[in-house]
Amino acid sequence: MEADEGSELYLLSRFAPSSSSAQLILNRAMDHHHHHHQDLSSELDPTLLMSTTSTTSSSSPPDSASPSFSSSPDASPPHYTFSVTNLSCPAPPRRSTTTALLPPFLSYFFSSSSSSAAGAGDDGLLLKSVSFTASSSNILAVVGPSGAGKSTLLRILSGRGTGSEISNPGTSVSLNGHAITSRSKLRRLCGFVTQDDNLLPLLTVRETILFAARFRLRSSAAATARERRLERVDALIHELGLSEVADSYVGGGGGGGARGVSGGERKRVSIAVDMVHDPPVLLLDEPTSGLDSRSAMDVLALLHGVSRARRQVVVLSIHQPSYRMLAGYISSLLLLSHGAVAHSGTLKSLEDALVRLGHKIPIQLNPLELAMEVTDQLKEQQHNHHHHAHADNNDEEEDDHDEMSLIVNNNNDDDEVPDEQGYCSRWTEVSALTVRCWRTMYRTRELFAARAAQAVVGGLGLGSVYFRLSPDNPDGVALRLGLFAFTLSFLLSSTVEALPILLHERRVLMREASRRAYRLSSYVVANAAVFAPCLLAVSLLFSAPLYWMAGLRAAAGCFGFFVLAVWLIVLMASSLVLFLSAVSPDFVLGNALICVCLGVFFLFSGYFIPKGSIPKYWAFMYYVSMYRYPLDLLLINEYGGSARGNCVAWVGGHGGGGNNSAGAMAGGVCLRTGADVLRDRGIDEGMKWVNVGVMLGFFLLYRVMCWAVLVRRASKTTL
Fold it and tell me: Which GO terms describe its cellular component (predicted)?
């Protein structure tokens, strides 16, 4: 690096505006950094916060404009050296998203016939003996054509691989000489910003970062935790230039119609979310993708300034950086081609390598563009250079062995780097997720208003169609049964509109769960805690007009039980949609699954086909149908209890109010009572509260199944 300082300063002088903007970012970061760095550093392994050798600190190129960190030990962040040696990755069998969650005996029939993933070479490897070293205060850019292995490399280093890649013999990943041998340690020490900004659109910028801090900054002193989080969030907002949009919605799709912040600002929010716990290493997968040139330069300037202020190791992938980006902000390059290293070094060393190969670089051409055209030649030159360097290092290995052994032996306790990052308390997780879920739902005004309007209009519409079902009507039983059946169909199908929002939220969940921000079971509990009272309100809005307009059993207790039954119906439906949103890869398949499930459940509810007429091989569907139990409940509520003796069909006279004594006084003969209606349909009135328990069981079962699927997805996610 020192050999290239002269050329680097020359290149920087050509782009003074960009460099000055980076210095403004650096000064802004330093204003707030020294106030909270000591508390944040204590959350990481103390041994990793130590600078191991003097060469580590000298790896950062000198910058006369950079502030001095040596004046105060407390204000000086530690230096880090992140090293990777001989990292290889085999290509996994290609498998579609749809079949990823199927049992093995089903996925065998539906999986692709291709044996390996796209991008693998003839040897079946996505990465081939990749080695590099990155140090604090510098940005290492992983570059290369599409399919070169850039995202795969970052995914493995962020702990989102299988774990076998870093445990192979001859492969090592280390931070300050301390070997990292598990995925959990990588996730602990490396922040990872994905290419897509998976954020909740209806939270503000400040709320998004604050919730991330609440989950990931943990303190034993509860009294100071909130103050510490607020200071950290305010510092990040200031450092990343988000002060003007701190109270604006993030936006970016996914619900609510919120316009949100710009693409560049949204990317900075994503960076802040994964920097909030101050990891030693920050990995970014194409942070400039989808941004205009100005926004892309701003993002790199921010990363450049923050990396120097916090002495973080920054490794990012970038598809085609401009010359200004390379010269102004990127310290070194790792050029990949078909998973192998074609060049590792500074931009100046890349130019020298091209010259040695006999290529003349036109003044108007970016050297990296030319390098991508001759990657095969560069790989051969890199291989020869590595072979000679390895031979020279063998002579010095004995001298260096004692020093490196000292570093490793000082850090050989597995407890120095925790295997897993501890969670917050269950109460903290559930309460924070409940508040966040409530804010998101409350701000999705279109969905909330649509559900309320749907309930009111549906109740009024059905009430007007079945207006005043008089006991004198000989078809009263059939009409009531039709009303209850349609009510079930209406309520169970009215929750589908939440599917696209849940699918978008799932991506946020996967990103946060992969970082061990909270337990997924806490999310399932918080989601139920928010939706249950809201669905109760919807049930009241639907039941009140329908019950009294249709002339159902006139008793306050019966009306209350009708509301309870409707509430349980929509709770079951919401749990089913939540479960299918966890299973489905997209909206199209999710919507199809919901339609199929509801159709099958309705068919075997006992309304179309009586229980005794269902074929034996389909008899089990009668017991798993979500329609059967609420339909029985509504009939028991209408014809059970004190209404068991009420006459519902008679001969001669008139109904006289629908009871036996009045019918007899009017000269009629009762042919059928409420008890007969229940008996004819095979309904046991004593099963009333058992059916309530079964409906609650369905509500819980689908949520437990949702949790199980989300856990499986989170274990395999690359977000």
Answer: membrane
Evaluate whether residue 433 is within a structural domain. Answer: yes
Looking at the fold, whether 184 and 45 belong to one and the same domain comes out as yes
- pLDDT digits 0-9 by tens, 105-129: 344 444 444 444 455 555 677 888 8
Q: How far is it, in rounded angstroms, from Cα 690 to Cα 683?
A: 12
Give yes or no: residues 357 and 464 share one domain.
Answer: no
386 and 441 housed in the same domain: no
- The answer to whether 685 and 709 are in contact (CB under 8 A) is no
Measured between alpha carbons, how far is 353 from 373 in angstroms, rounded to an integer?
13
Do residues 449 and 327 both lie within one domain?
no
Q: What is the DSSP letter of 60?
A: S
Low-confidence stretches of the chain (pLDDT beneath 50) = 1-26, 28-30, 32-75, 103-117, 387-421, 655-665
pLDDT, position 2: 40
DSSP alpha helix (H) spans, 515-586: 520-549, 556-583
CB atoms within 10 A of CB 466: 19
The answer to whether 145 and 337 have CB atoms below 8 angstroms apart is yes
Look-up: residue for tokens 């290995």?
A: 397
Are 438 and 556 within one domain?
A: yes
Q: From edge to edge, which strands make up the β-sheet containing 281-285?
A: 190-193, 281-285, 313-317, 139-143, 332-337, 340-345
Cα angle 35-295-192, degrees, rounded to a multiple of 5: 55
Which two tokens mark 346? Answer: 């500074």
* Range of the structural domain that residue 141 is part of: 2-90+128-195+279-392
* CATH number, position 81: 3.40.50.300
Cβ-Cβ contacts under 8 Å for 35 (sequence gap 6 or more): 231, 235
